[in-house]
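Data card: per-record layout.
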Amino acid sequence: MRLHRRDWIGLAAGGILAGGFAPPARAGALSAAQRPLTITGLTVTPIALPDPPLLAASGCHGPYFLRNVVELQTEGGIVGLGETPGGASVTAALERARRMVVGQNAFAYRKFARDVQALGMGAYAGIELACLDACARATGRRLCELVGGPVRDPVEFAAYLFYRYAADHPVILADPHLVDSRGRGDRALDSWGEVRTAEAMADLAVKFRDRFGFRVFKLKGGVLAPEVERDSLVAMAERLGPQARLRIDPNARWKTATAVRIGQAIRQLPLEYYEDPVQGQAAMAEVRRATGLKMSTNMCVTQFAHIPDALRLHPIDVLLCDHHYFGGFAGCLALGPIARAAGWALSQHSNSHAGITMAAMIHLAASIPELTLASDTHYPWLVEGFDIIEGTPLAIHKGAMAVPAGPGLGVTLDRDKLARAHEVYQKSGMRRRDDRSLMRQLEPNWTGELL
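The structure for this 451-residue chain is written out next.
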């Protein structure tokens, strides 16, 4: 059969060239796939989850870490999930965002992005993630497929190692915010114990390797004397062997002279990068020149406005993106070509989180070609049985995590665990993170000054 050109174009538009015949649509009608995914409601649930007494430059983690869980209702019953930083200010911002998003098309989330971002990047990250989850569920696709991935699966993660006190330390158990039944011995929150020496940190690294199969190990520094943290890296290198890759992050608590001295002392170790030993791009660039080490940050380049100075001063070789403050998935995806042009590698920053954020981080890392280094994650520190997603926790195998199967994020809320976490939030009275107060109770002479 010979077709006139107009007939050929008509058949192509109707779908026959796409693999099958599609009958002409009634004028003005939209298919289910073409109709907007209208947002009909937004539910925000602040939660508190048990947190071990991990130490950082900011002090000591309190008995709970706070998160906000976002549920975005849409026409047709599809619900998109989001998780974002906790605290009353973020909760309030999310509540204010409701009027901005209800009635909008979830597929057109960039239309209201600027207005929501003005309320805070944390609020935007939770809503954008819920939109993406809903859109992916509506199309039957995994979230990473919705944004052009995956370019890798599974995704590698790094062991995130903290100095810490034992979970049943009496000062911690006396915290007035504590409202659960944790106690001493068998009733302790976890069994990792106290880690406040170089030898204990090396032991912890080996345990994380044996349990999770990690290849990359990040030491959260800025806690003990810098020489002790240097010795910790040396002990880790000896115990883990030459195949391991190390990182250290003093969270900018060191003076420039200290960072240069320690950096020069660890140059012979299998160090993947030196993260934020000092404050500010100029000091970071100075340490980079003096040590010759690869430098990384999640502190001096945390928004697009910081990039011009970074291109001028050359403070880093690695940028740790985070969809919670870099403009969501859209912002982090935009960082890829910029990093490639700048000669930077990408990784991901992490803070205490539950399974929704963990799934989001996997999808994001799977979607950015330039994100070639193992991402951070706090997920191994999440106390067993307290994740808010249904089923078993997302698995870490040989230091990597598979992109969750199923549409959207691939995870589902466990309603009972969510309700329990919200009840703890209400009863604990915690409304913001405060590492300094508990640290001063544990170590009365602690000041947080630069070392």
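Known properties of this structure: The longest helix spans residues 121-139. DSSP finds 15 helices and 14 strands in the chain.

See the next section for split statistics.
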